[in-house]
Amino acid sequence: MIIIKNKYSFSELILTIYALICTKLFYRGARLIRRPVFMRGKSSMEFGVGLTTGHACRFDLLGENQKTLVIGKHCEMGDNVHIVAHEKVVIGDNCLMASKIFISDTNHGEYSGTNQSSPDIPPNKRPLTTSPVFIGDNVWIGENVCVLPGVSIGDGSIIGANSVVNKDIPENCIMAGAPAKAVKFYNTSTHLWERVND
């Protein structure tokens, strides 16, 4: 086993100290919000103690007098995580997210049902549609994952790198692929992650 000690360069140490000061001033209760951070609709965000974000995270929130993004306690996000929450995105406690993750409850247009959007209308002119996203406790989301509107991810699940989550995921499973499919489930009797039989 190799143990890696993370040592900051001098410039990174200065930037981290600056981010820590800004965190304590503007994001009370958070552990560290690294700069830059892009926040649209900060009043629509609620987070538990210990939130940590990487560099260049982006939050696009929309909610008049309501919390559209709710993040639990002790969650950690890598760099360039982008969350769009116009109706509701809920993230449970102790979640770990790698970098370059996109989570959204919003879509440009409607593509199912009877009142679907026409391809003759530019995508930016189509009405915004929303469907809530729920992510359970102790979820680990890998690098470059996309979580689409209307999805629920169960407690204890792991989403493999580069996956596209377009349907609900049960608790305690490992999903991977585009679209994401079950790879392993945690067996509570054997206490092992067991491969799904194809």
Give an account of the 3D structure:
- There is one protein chain.
- The protein contains one helix and 22 strands.
- The chain is mainly β and 198 residues long.
- It has a single domain (31-195), classed as 3 Solenoid (UDP N-Acetylglucosamine Acyltransferase, domain 1).
- It is globular and about 55 Å long.
The total number of structural domains is 1
What class do helices, strands and sheet pairing give? Answer: mainly beta
User: Which CATH class is shown?
Assistant: Mainly Beta
Strand content: 25-35%
Helix content: under 10%
What's a quick, concise take on this entry?
The protein is mainly β.
Give structural attributes.
1 helix; UDP N-Acetylglucosamine Acyltransferase, domain 1; 198 residues; globular; single chain; mainly beta; seven-stranded mixed beta sheet; six-stranded parallel beta sheet
Question: SSE layout and pairings?
Answer:
Elements: H1 10-26, E1 32-33, E2 37-40, E3 45-47, E4 52-53, E5 57-61, E6 69-71, E7 76-77, E8 82-85, E9 89-91, E10 96-97, E11 102-104, E12 106-108, E13 128-130, E14 133-135, E15 140-141, E16 146-147, E17 152-153, E18 158-159, E19 164-165, E20 173-176, E21 181-187, E22 192-195
Parallel strand pairs: 1-4, 2-5, 3-6, 5-8, 6-9, 7-10, 8-11, 9-14, 10-15, 11-16, 14-17, 15-18, 16-19, 18-20
Antiparallel strand pairs: 12-13, 20-21, 21-22
